[in-house]
Design brief:
The protein is mostly beta strands. The protein has helices at residues 2-6, 223-228, 241-256, and strands at residues 31-36, 43-48, 54-59, 63-68, 73-79, 85-90, 97-101, 106-109, 116-120, 127-132, 143-148, 153-157, 162-167, 174-179, 184-189, 194-198, 204-208, 215-220, 263-267, 272-275, 285-287, 294-299, 305-310, 314-319, 325-330, 336-341, 347-352, 357-361, 366-371, 378-383, 389-394, 399-403. A hairpin with a 4-residue loop joins strand 11 (143-148) and strand 12 (153-157).
Length: 404
């Protein structure tokens, strides 16, 4: 009788739209398991290796340090830089680490022995960003790209440590470089433009314009799978380079699923743009809502969401395909510097000037865990690709590991 009153049929067809989720689950981090002192100045860059076994950190005390995650102790201290180490980047096969400093020198390190492979000299001012060639294009990884304050972008060969070519059309500081999976290099600059380059010869393919102020940061919808290469969520990969390239290609194809790769740019004009740079030079969407400059944007590992961290103390979640606004996460009482996704795209962690880390849940759009512990601003935060833990570093010179 209830059905008749409501005029509802039992025979109705319901359309169910489903989103495939990751087959594994990453547990939220809940406590600080290790505070690892060692650096004598602020920790400026933290990055886990693609297999999640090692951790590298760069600091203002001119050293790069490797940490052993099983014992949670320092493994190697790599000395060589003459100035602050600003960025650290692991090659996707986890064999080489590149680090760039304030003087414009790039050092290449062996993470197992902690010995330097050598230096790449050529930039005249400090290095702002480093990116490696994706694993499905070339294994073992040889080429990487660097952006610098001297307005140029250089592509290097890691084995010979020679500069293969220099790309310069930016008129101001290059703020961020990304090496895409389609054979393109993306670079953003303070001259308000984003350039798309051909990775083989270094030709300028197109320029993306639209921002009204400095462009700070770029994110690719495939950046997680490009970073981890052939390693799956347990940190395993085939030994043979040919096999590993095939696996990396499969993982890459699964993430893009037939769509061209998307790019998001965040700027000092408080807005973000969503682009499909392989196909067109007009933007797909303009994403507005922040009221201060945007410090970092990042795509979720499955490419479905975009997060933006801003100086207005909030983090905003956007749809990664259409660029529409989804939610705002407010709880920090200082500017948010960095955010990092868990590898299952269900959680993310943010580090802020207010000295706390916070873990958020994407599904409920709520704060899950508040992690105080740092004595000062948290500059760098990273979530391990195998989901085992979070590393954070900042102004208090201590590297902290957080586990479940």
């Amino acid at each position: 009788s209830h059905l008749q009153k409501q005029k509802v049929s039992v025979e109705q067809c319901l359309r169910i739209v489903y989103m495939p989720q990751a087959v594994f689950r990453v547990r939220p981090v809940a406590r600080c398991t290790a505070s690892m002192p060692g650096h004598s100045e602020s920790v400026l860059a933290v990055q886990f290796s693609p297999n999640g076994r090692y951790l590298a950190s760069g600091s203002g005390d001119t050293t790069l340090r490797f940490w052993d995650l099983s014992t949670q102790l320092p493994k190697h201290e790599c000395k060589g830089h003459r100035n602050w180490v600003l960025c650290v980047s692991w090659s996707p096969d986890a064999v080489v680490v590149a680090s760039g400093d304030m003087d414009g020198t790039i050092w290449l390190w062996d993470p197992v022995s902690g010995k330097p492979h050598g230096t790449c000299k050529g930039h005249s001012k400090w290095i702002t960003s480093l990116a490696w060639e994706p694993a499905h294009k070339a294994l073992p990884s040889r080429r990487f790209v660097s952006g610098s304050k001297d307005n140029t972008i250089r592509v290097w060969d890691a084995t010979t440590r020679r500069c293969l070519f220099t790309m310069s059309s930016h008129t101001m500081v290059v703020t961020c470089v990304r090496w895409g999976g389609e054979g393109l290099i993306y670079s953003s600059s303070r001259d308000c433009s984003i350039n798309v380059w051909d990775a083989q010869e270094g030709k300028l393919v197109r320029t993306l314009k639209g921002h009204g102020h400095w462009v700070n940061t770029l994110a690719l919808s495939t950046e997680y799978v490009l970073r981890t290469g052939a390693f799956d969520h347990t940190g395993r990969a085939p030994e043979d380079p040919q096999e590993a390239m095939k696996v990396a290609q499969q993982r890459y194809d699964a993430v893009i699923s037939g769509q061209p790769e998307r790019l998001v740019s965040g700027s000092d004009d408080h807005t973000m743009f969503l682009w499909a740079p392989a196909t067109s030079k007009t933007h797909l969407a303009r994403m507005t809502g922040h009221v201060q400059l945007i410090n970092q944007v990042t795509f979720s590992p499955d490419g479905r969401w975009v997060l933006s961290a801003s100086f207005d103390k909030s983090i905003k979640l956007w749809d990664g395909v259409k660029g529409t606004f989804v939610a705002t996460f407010r709880n920090h009482v200082g500017p948010v510097f960095q955010v990092a996704w868990s590898s299952d795209s269900r959680l993310f962690v943010s580090g802020s000037k207010d000295s706390t880390l916070k873990v958020w849940d994407v599904r409920t759009r709520k704060l899950m865990v508040d992690l105080p512990g740092h004595a000062d601003e948290v500059f760098a935060v990273d979530w391990s690709p195998d989901g085992s833990g979070v590393a954070s570093g900042g102004k208090d010179k201590v590297l902290k590991l957080w586990r479940h």
